[in-house]
Amino acid sequence: MTAVLPMTNPVRPYAWGSRVAIAALQGRAPAAEPEAELWMGAHPAAPSVLATPGGPVPLGELVAADPAGTLGAAALAEFGPRLPYLLKVLAADEPLSLQVHPAPEQAAEGYAREDAAGIPLEAADRNYRDPYAKPELICALEPFEALSGFQEPARSAARLAGLGVPALGPAVELLAAGRLHAVVSELLTLPAAERAPLVADVTAACARDAELAWAAGLAGHYPGDPGVVIALLMHRVRLAPGEAMYVPAGQPHSYLSGTGVEIMGASDNVLRGGLTGKHIDVPELLRILSPEASEPALVHARDTGSEEVYDTPAREFRLSRIPLDGPVTLPAAGPQILLSVAGEVSVRRAGGQGEGTTEHRVPPGNSVFVPASAGPLELSGEGTLFRAATGGGERA
Fold first, then answer.
1. Can you give the pTM of this predicted structure?
2. Catalytic residue among 272, 315, 318, 349
């Protein structure tokens, strides 16, 4: 199998995306429509296509044709014949939905349940489109804002009380009693006749408070959405370029603005609670949602000398950032995707000349796939790469 395979990657045109960010990364003119996510992987919804000696081949087909050579023995034994991660460039001009992702056992059970109920995979009201978990990590390429995790209930009670909105009185009392999950449940199940006036009053109060003006901005995108109030119960996170945040199963989160490199379990399972026009299943969301307060899981890079590694508990993936200033040799690491985000960089299999050692230039916004059978790699040039691999450390 050829060692380094250039990738053609699909762009997902979600309404919240940027017309500029991904285009600028790839050196293109601004797009006519929003470009939200650049997908790199084998997810069947939008697989990457590889330039092989025999012609273009979707990555999933390459894995199916040679699982051992593509994935390596360790990844194949742990995850089966599938690439277990999906790498993205995410570009948000508008807030994403307030959402959570299921744990492995919840995803498997939910998928089986909806299959048994005969709900088509592409149905708008389907929650589980595959039986896999979706842990994820976002690393900022530019200043990036997000919401992640619930604050302590007492702190949220004080914040809501300070807005001076009488209709929030019951929520304040529940929060003061530590009943966070009950507050979220009540907000999501408010009758429409009560919901819109409450959100309007909360929005007006936030607009008068410089520290909460961001929440009023959410209402500008999603008027009448109770997710605006739920957002006030959460931690607001600001990531500088190179900083990262991990999102485990059950953790409520929303990405508000900015561009980053995101890696996740190769899944499309999302339970939405607000800030969206898409399907919301309140009972299922509340079943998956972690009811406890939790701090955002900020991840600080570990410098190995050649890489800055963002360690997480996820077995599905491992992400590292490589500031390249001259030749670097990387050890084997199972199935890999190398994404260039700046400069002039090239990749080839280590070992001198011969079959499979052709040097591949990787311009910014482009990527290559490296099968497990390739072994160590040689990088050259000056620039910045992100390296995606399976989790659990280096794999020979």
1. 0.94
2. 272
